[in-house]
């Protein structure tokens, strides 16, 4: 086996080991298991295609998470071209879950997360749901390590306060459109001009 074959095998083995993490991160971003898995698959394909740009010895998890995150934001920017789901059709196709309050609890968490500033929400999802270290989130987002730690801490404190006070805002959005609305606001925040 040549050195190039060995490097390719190591790269592929490390990438395969990250699949569960990519799926979890994809699901946390989309709020949908199927869409999250599709997002992870797209990110894996892009990572394989971009193997030459990966620097061996660097943090592959952060590199692949950045790819997944970029794929997600690219999809959201293109989403305005797609048709919205008809609420009546969606209502007729809903499947019962074993815990009838699970969807209400998830919607309540979504609305509470929506009350956080976008930078805090993103940091909390990457650390809490995706299981990334603070260092990895810093690398993915480009923010300083101390900034990431501060964002996560403030996001957790603020969520606890929101739930303790029970002051979760109502947005009257149907569940199928709520996540898209959240990420449209995130995209708007990210593309807003920054003060010098």
TrEMBL record:
Residues 17-68 form the PhyR sigma2 domain. PANTHER family: RNA POLYMERASE ECF-TYPE SIGMA FACTO, RNA POLYMERASE SIGMA FACTOR RFAY-RELATED. Keywords: Sigma factor, Transcription, Transcription regulation. The keyword Cell inner membrane does not apply. The keyword Transcription applies. Residues 107-159 form the RNA polymerase sigma factor 70 region 4 type domain. This is RNA polymerase sigma-70 factor (ECF subfamily). It comes from Caulobacter rhizosphaerae. Belongs to the sigma-70 factor family. ECF subfamily.
């Amino acid at each position: 086996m040549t050195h190039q074959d060995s490097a390719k095998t190591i790269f592929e083995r490390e990438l395969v080991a990250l699949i569960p993490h990519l799926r979890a991160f994809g699901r946390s971003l989309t709020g949908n298991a199927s869409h999250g898995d599709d997002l992870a698959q797209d990110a894996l394909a892009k990572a394989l295609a971009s193997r030459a740009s990966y620097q061996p010895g660097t943090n592959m998890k952060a590199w692949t998470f950045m790819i997944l995150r970029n794929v997600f934001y690219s999809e959201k920017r293109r989403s305005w071209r797609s048709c919205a789901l008809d609420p009546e059709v969606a209502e007729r196709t809903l499947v019962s879950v074993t815990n009838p309050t699970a969807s209400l609890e998830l919607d309540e968490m979504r609305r509470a997360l929506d009350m956080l500033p976008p930078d805090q929400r993103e940091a909390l999802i990457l650390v809490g749901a995706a299981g990334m270290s603070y260092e990895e989130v810093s690398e993915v987002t480009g923010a300083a390590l101390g900034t990431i730690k501060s964002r996560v801490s403030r996001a957790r404190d603020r969520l606890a306060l929101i739930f303790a006070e029970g002051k979760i805002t109502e947005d009257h959005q149907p569940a199928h459109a709520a996540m898209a609305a959240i990420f449209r606001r995130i995209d708007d925040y990210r593309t807003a001009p920054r003060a010098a």
